[in-house]
Specification:
Immunoglobulin-like; flat; six-stranded antiparallel beta sheet; mainly beta; six-stranded mixed beta sheet
Length: 445
Amino acid sequence: MKKIVNTAVPVVFATTRTPLSTTLSIIQEGENGGPLTQAQDVPHDLWIPNRRLHPLFLRPHFEATDPDTGETVTSGYEQKWYLVNNGEYTEITSVTTSDDYYKECDAEGNLTGRLVVRKNVNYDAPVTIACRVTCPDNLRKQAYTEEELVLLTAENKPEAFYSVKIQAPSTLTFNPIWQKRDTPLAGGALQYGSMFRLSAKAALGEEDATTGVVFFWYAGDTLIGETLECLFYRDANQLAGKGQGTDTIVVDMDFADQLDIAVAIGYYEAVYSPTGNPHAKGYYEQADGAYVLTADTTVNTGKQYYTKPTAPNTPARDHIAAVWQWPNIDALPYSKGGTVVREGKTLAGTKDFAAIVQADGLDVGGDVVDEYVRLEWKRHGMNSAEVTVVGWGREVSISNADLYRTGYENVEVYPDIWLLGCYKLVVDGEGKYVTSDGRYVVSRW
């Protein structure tokens, strides 16, 4: 065989790759299935669900598949969230959990990919949210982008809403010096000394629903009850048939100097397939607009039974603040035996001092002073910076020798005013609550 003299023109094969197959969908998550449409009560500014309490979570589901190999791209892609308004895209970058929209982070601060929506949407102002995912493909040297839109809407349906309102001013003030007695307050509350009676009313749409719901009273996020955390609430202070679970409670502000009191409600839910012993199961039935525990021991098919709520099952909620408010306190000291100290025998004696305590310019009775005010008596030589504490109380005795000065120097005697706050539990040096005869010890602080 002879050597080839000329090489033939080669046939060139081009290697091409089929473009990736990409899809993007957005899954809504959260309570009630995370609905994209809310019910809205415009006059009362209410929503179901209330996204401030029950946020909507949007999670992107992105898939990129190589048709040639069947492999799925599981990482390396970038996603961004946007608000879309009249075709203009505004990227959502916040991770602040109090914002209307923010990107969720895990406990380590890493982004989870989900968008959290806390925005309650008005029925006449729907919101469009966009998610864009970009997936780079190094083999094909190109990037693939998918975009998906979500529309958030609301329907104006006020008849679907429960509402609740505490019948009291938005802020209750307790003046420990001038305590009101058996005094109606604005909004329907009643004060008797340190005791405040609070009531609430519930409505379904425009109809009064007070007798048809259970009331849950809170101090902040704590359900109020006769516990160490709620010294201001005692069963013995409640009106007959009232208290936690009803529309009326009584709180004692002598045991709390600041409270955020809230009320929520729960409605009785219908039992559609009752079985067994209705009375033993705790079923209720309606009577004259109220719910009463049924006496039936077997199911009466002609009756509708209900279960009593054990926790709020509506977003209806209202709250007020209750705080101490001190008047302007002054003390007017005076000497019971003159204001001159002379050298000689008089230096062996004492002088007695007392003070008139005034609040807003009016004299305060001794029993109130003993309860809420402490006077720390001091003496001070006018030519010296030294101040000496000489005693506590509404009255004090000081020896003439301690008051005497040479060189015509005067000595002033005066009380500093200390105010005692609400009762609190006493703890020992180990941080344990102090008890006496099996009862917890409290003291003003």
